Amino acid sequence: MSDTVERHEFGAEVGRLLDLVVHALYSDREIFLRELVANAADAMDRRRFEALTDAASALPPDAKVRIVPDKAARTLTISDAGIGMSKEDLAQNLGTIARSGTRAFSQSLSESGAGQAKTGENGQDPRPSLIGQFGVGFYSAFMVADRVSVTSRRAEAEAAWTWTSDGQGSYTLERADRAEPGTDIVLHLKEDADEYLEPHRLDHVVRKWADFITVPIAVVQEGREEAANQGTALWRKPKSEITPELYEGFYRQVGMNFDKPWATLHWRAEGQLEFTALLFVPGMKPFQAFEAERESKVRLHVRRMFITDTANLLPSWLRFVQGVVDTEDLPLNVSREMLQATPVLARIRRAVTGRVLSELTNRAKDSADYATFWENFGPVLKEGIYEDHERRGEIAPLLRFRSSAVEGWTSLPDYVARMKDGQEAIYYLVADDAEALARSPQLEGFRARGVEVLLLSDHVDAFWPDSLDRFAEKPLRSVTQGGLDLSKFAREGDPGDVPAGIDALVAGLKAALSADVSDVRATDRLVDSAVVLSASGSGPDLQMQRLLRRAGRGGGSLPVLEINPHHALIRALAEGPESDVPAAAGTLLDLARIQDGDTPRDPVAFARTIAAALAGAGRSEPAGRPPDA
């Protein structure tokens, strides 16, 4: 072999792919450190395996991956005591893209059957878990470095060699000195990569991306080595070996939480699809709003190596779940775009989602315990009804509601079990204010007949009932939608006869309010209130119409004004002069709007009308006697 520097051109495909690797394959620049650390750990795994048949290849007892920043030289060095590379290995693995020492080693292992008859002390196959490709992943170094040098000595070889390149189309090879087998990768950092000279930044990156690689990783600072990874993948351990304290510690670390998890799910899927999952349902709401970030942040690992927390392993309506999914069935150097397209990940998503729903179903059997979960994350789970057509049948029994008939939370199955004979629909009422719901005039007729109504006040409640449409073959109906007939149910108390003049009053109100309502009609679903609004036809209910107006998307069709013919105010108008009707019509409509949590059409005019009415009532009282309230 020549002692002179040898210059070589990259393989034809390298130049085209380098730009892709640096600018497109990886969305996060700091991933370069994950790739290089993974390669170093892989090389040490391979050397450990070779030591099973060749004691001379044994790893030193203190072997680890060392990360050494040098601010003065502006270099970052990643060193390992792994299997190392010969001159030919350097040319093949680093000079030709998509060449892989890992892949070649795995293939030769399979072809030779090496190691198949050997077992470790615990009875398991001692062959290493091979990660990554020493090819594409290596080139991520050029995201932060304008020149990279790799000095390596193959185990059992005498000579070491240095590979050097600026990533512009060629590389050099020359003899080097290295006392022990292994590899040193030296990155000459770009001007905008100073952060990777800071030990605390390097420590953070390693803990984020490679915390559970079993090979020890250390960041060297002023001659001191600081451990940067745990070295143990908790989720890979048998459940019998993990204490509640270990679970809680990992939960706090992975989700930056301070509470205890409400539920812990730890299982291994085997068969055509293999993965391990350790997931947590938090015991309290997070500090940040769920609306700001609607994507799942469950971490995807491949063979213990963190890949991303944006793989959307769970749907957005389960985004409160935290934890890790670790699979053997994906390559390490996979981009986000590839993740979204791979069928393997789609199968993992389905399996993980099904497992979480199964856990929630089991925990829902304890109503008091489940109430804790529901009060924290119920509104998020409801989103699944209108977002996930496939799963809404599984989600619906998990929903919980306040009710006009029972204390605490109730479910759709419990509601159906309590339905009155002849009741054909599940009734609900939606409003912004939970306190006001229970006092709404919309409930008066239902209460008088003993018909239960579900009370919905979450921000998503205006959307999901139409998506679910029915439960247990019973349609869901908003009590504000027109056309509800309660006459089949006996009413508590006799309201008396309908006074004369109601038909004329209805006609007069309809004429006065023709621009504001689609219809005016007498109703038997009011008890104490004079008026109420309902939606016309089968369109959106009143709450949805209000949301549409706020969003500037129109408010649907005009509402219907329903009047209570037995109320004293309505009786007085029906029996009084017709000339009073036009002036009273607008006030009645505004009263109905206020009762439903809306505003008067003209708040100033409404205030003046009420003030004038109060002043008139005061003048009509005898002197010295205050008017009745």
UniProtKB/TrEMBL annotation:
<feature type="binding site">
    <location>
        <position position="80"/>
    </location>
    <ligand>
        <name>ATP</name>
    </ligand>
</feature>
<dbReference type="InterPro" id="IPR001404">
    <property type="entry name" value="Hsp90_fam"/>
</dbReference>
<dbReference type="InterPro" id="IPR036890">
    <property type="entry name" value="HATPase_C_sf"/>
</dbReference>
<dbReference type="InterPro" id="IPR020568">
    <property type="entry name" value="Ribosomal_Su5_D2-typ_SF"/>
</dbReference>
<feature type="binding site">
    <location>
        <position position="336"/>
    </location>
    <ligand>
        <name>ATP</name>
    </ligand>
</feature>
<dbReference type="InterPro" id="IPR020575">
    <property type="entry name" value="Hsp90_N"/>
</dbReference>
<feature type="binding site">
    <location>
        <position position="93"/>
    </location>
    <ligand>
        <name>ATP</name>
    </ligand>
</feature>
<feature type="region of interest" description="A; substrate-binding">
    <location>
        <begin position="1"/>
        <end position="336"/>
    </location>
</feature>
<keyword id="KW-0067">ATP-binding</keyword>
<feature type="region of interest" description="C">
    <location>
        <begin position="547"/>
        <end position="629"/>
    </location>
</feature>
<feature type="binding site">
    <location>
        <position position="39"/>
    </location>
    <ligand>
        <name>ATP</name>
    </ligand>
</feature>
<feature type="binding site">
    <location>
        <position position="183"/>
    </location>
    <ligand>
        <name>ATP</name>
    </ligand>
</feature>
<dbReference type="GO" id="GO:0005737">
    <property type="term" value="C:cytoplasm"/>
</dbReference>
<feature type="binding site">
    <location>
        <position position="85"/>
    </location>
    <ligand>
        <name>ATP</name>
    </ligand>
</feature>
<comment type="function">
    <text>Molecular chaperone. Has ATPase activity.</text>
</comment>
<feature type="region of interest" description="Disordered">
    <location>
        <begin position="108"/>
        <end position="128"/>
    </location>
</feature>
<dbReference type="Pfam" id="PF00183">
    <property type="entry name" value="HSP90"/>
</dbReference>
<feature type="binding site">
    <location>
        <begin position="133"/>
        <end position="138"/>
    </location>
    <ligand>
        <name>ATP</name>
    </ligand>
</feature>
<dbReference type="InterPro" id="IPR019805">
    <property type="entry name" value="Heat_shock_protein_90_CS"/>
</dbReference>
<comment type="subunit">
    <text>Homodimer.</text>
</comment>
<comment type="similarity">
    <text>Belongs to the heat shock protein 90 family.</text>
</comment>
<dbReference type="GO" id="GO:0005524">
    <property type="term" value="F:ATP binding"/>
</dbReference>
<keyword id="KW-0143">Chaperone</keyword>
<dbReference type="InterPro" id="IPR037196">
    <property type="entry name" value="HSP90_C"/>
</dbReference>
<feature type="binding site">
    <location>
        <position position="35"/>
    </location>
    <ligand>
        <name>ATP</name>
    </ligand>
</feature>
<keyword id="KW-0346">Stress response</keyword>
<feature type="binding site">
    <location>
        <begin position="100"/>
        <end position="101"/>
    </location>
    <ligand>
        <name>ATP</name>
    </ligand>
</feature>
<dbReference type="Pfam" id="PF13589">
    <property type="entry name" value="HATPase_c_3"/>
</dbReference>
<dbReference type="GO" id="GO:0016887">
    <property type="term" value="F:ATP hydrolysis activity"/>
</dbReference>
<dbReference type="GO" id="GO:0051082">
    <property type="term" value="F:unfolded protein binding"/>
</dbReference>
<protein>
    <recommendedName>
        <fullName>Chaperone protein HtpG</fullName>
    </recommendedName>
</protein>
<keyword id="KW-0547">Nucleotide-binding</keyword>
<dbReference type="GO" id="GO:0140662">
    <property type="term" value="F:ATP-dependent protein folding chaperone"/>
</dbReference>
<keyword id="KW-0963">Cytoplasm</keyword>
